[in-house]
Design a protein that fits this description.
The structure is a homodimer of 363-residue chains. Helix content of chain A is 20%, strand content 44%. Chain A has 363 residues and is an alpha+beta fold. Chain A has 3 domains: 112 residues, DNA Polymerase III, Chain A, domain 2, CATH 3.10.150; 119 residues, Roll (DNA Polymerase III, Chain A, domain 2); 115 residues, DNA Polymerase III, subunit A, domain 2 (DNA Polymerase III, Chain A, domain 2, Roll), CATH 3.10.150.
Chain lengths: 363, 363
Amino acid sequence: MKLQVTQENLNRALGSVAKVANSRNTLPILANVLMKTSNNRLSLSATNLDIGITHYIGSKVSEEGSITVPARLMQDFVGSLPEGVINLELQDTKLKVTTDQYKSVVNGIVADDFPVMPAISSGKSWKVSGATLKKGLQQVVFAASNDETRPVLTGVLLTTQDGVLSMAATDSYRLAEKKLGENKEDVNLLIPATALQDLLRIIGDSDDMVTITHDDQQVLFQVGDIELVTRLVDGKYPDYRKLIPSSFATQATLKRSDFINVTKVSSLFARESAGSVTIELDEATGKLSIRSVASQLGENTATAEANIKGTGSITLNSRYLLDGLNAVGGEEVTFGFNGKLEATLLHDSASKDYSHIIMPLKS
Amino acid sequence: MKLQVTQENLNRALGSVAKVANSRNTLPILANVLMKTSNNRLSLSATNLDIGITHYIGSKVSEEGSITVPARLMQDFVGSLPEGVINLELQDTKLKVTTDQYKSVVNGIVADDFPVMPAISSGKSWKVSGATLKKGLQQVVFAASNDETRPVLTGVLLTTQDGVLSMAATDSYRLAEKKLGENKEDVNLLIPATALQDLLRIIGDSDDMVTITHDDQQVLFQVGDIELVTRLVDGKYPDYRKLIPSSFATQATLKRSDFINVTKVSSLFARESAGSVTIELDEATGKLSIRSVASQLGENTATAEANIKGTGSITLNSRYLLDGLNAVGGEEVTFGFNGKLEATLLHDSASKDYSHIIMPLKS
């Protein structure tokens, strides 16, 4: 193997794949990245056996070949090099990396020892706007569970209903759903949230379309020169749509930044009580107030002006409320609830594309 | 106690003192900040028994008094409040904190339980420019040891010699000395490096003069409305001046940014060898090269153009070299050494005010 690449391209490709290699793995070779030439392209691949990412970059290949090298060292090293041409040359399992100023030898492991990258041979294929997908992922993925004992909830559900594509995640304490828009293809995919976090990183600031190809077991995302394949999560996702309340006994509409500020201040006094804060809506005074009590430290009541219908109170985890307020976006938000034990709903007052549900705490 | 302060002032004062209170302490009350009115000023004080900091702010006092409250909660809380007037009112040991939107009660502990703040009653007093002191502290303090078994080396020595004030610190592997300029007062103070890190934070971007007052046991720094008192370190500081080499068998002058870059890249391959890198100067080629070998990962040689006198090589810890290169400042640096076991010297080529000495590793 002998080739030339630019530092910028190699650095970008290592940035795409190295994180998957860096995740704690049992097989040492999974900490390596596979580099392989093919015509005038160099592919860099990494996998943790569940997720595989490959990034293709242009290169001037004078001798074909392949090798695996430590991902973290290679990423740190290439990231420290100045912009410009990098010469790569393989001698046995030693990769010589040379620029004007730097001469390095990186010890590799033969490519044959690298596991077969997850791949998808056939399946349905469709496209979605990268910007739309990214925004949706940012609003939904964090609500998935990371409790491996309930694998279904570690996934994000991508489904169509009545021709509209939506994305949903829940850890059973809160639920986020985003409607992404119309979609011709009928889909029902349960995708690991960790893979979608990688996808979010890969989409970055790109405005490209994302091509999604899937069969029963796997899904492939293609963004520009990058491919991410992940296995799907097995199991039946709960019928979350029936959990989203549609009418409310009590409801407030207020500036999102006000709601965030009063929640933040209240959460400081909620540390002792595991984040528990009580929200009171008073139709007569037009005030939303949040109260938190720390028996040791003290107590706090914070109020904000709001447009209120109905009077009542509910107790929530302030961290979940802040997560929801940050994800919902928009200038003004609407927050509604019914009984003290029923699901609450938060949405952008100007749009119903995104719903954020938080289950109350017993108060 | 009943008074009004602005959020900006209270927040600034808590920022000055809270960190000392937050350091891990055995006495629970040391996690509190003492608030005390006196005429139309409010003082906030915190101490860890070694170091004490007091910040005075203007306030409208309608009833004098004092109380201690949890520093971290108070800092987080006041920091989250909007700008504007804050009302403080004490009822028993409960401090009521009220603004338009927020009503809080913070549970305090009576001021009588707070330890007496370190104070200095008399002593010599002199002034030094805050900007000069800050720059010197940034270049010197990090070189002090944090090994409590050799307390003398955890201090920074502030001394005058021939009417020139200098500051020095060493952990026995490296040594930093900064000449601060002429000083009429004769001094010889060994000040804990941790106290000087707090002083650095307190000086911030202020251009004020700093007043230094000291007796045999303590030193007081006054910066604007803030006072920091610390005990001095007991013991005799090593005669460090004789360790600074003045002539060199081998010496290179080069762009500091080049030296930093090649050291950074080399250090990546020096992780296995505890940071060990070998620097070679070659007068004939005018090149400085840094070589590092990681038996497992690979090896690296990086070169930079330099103006070189004498040919030779020396092995250093790359982290110490990077620390030194970052601290030394300036466009061009001069790096000199003699035998393989003797101290090396790094300084700004344009100035000899700052000397950074690194002891070599055995190679």
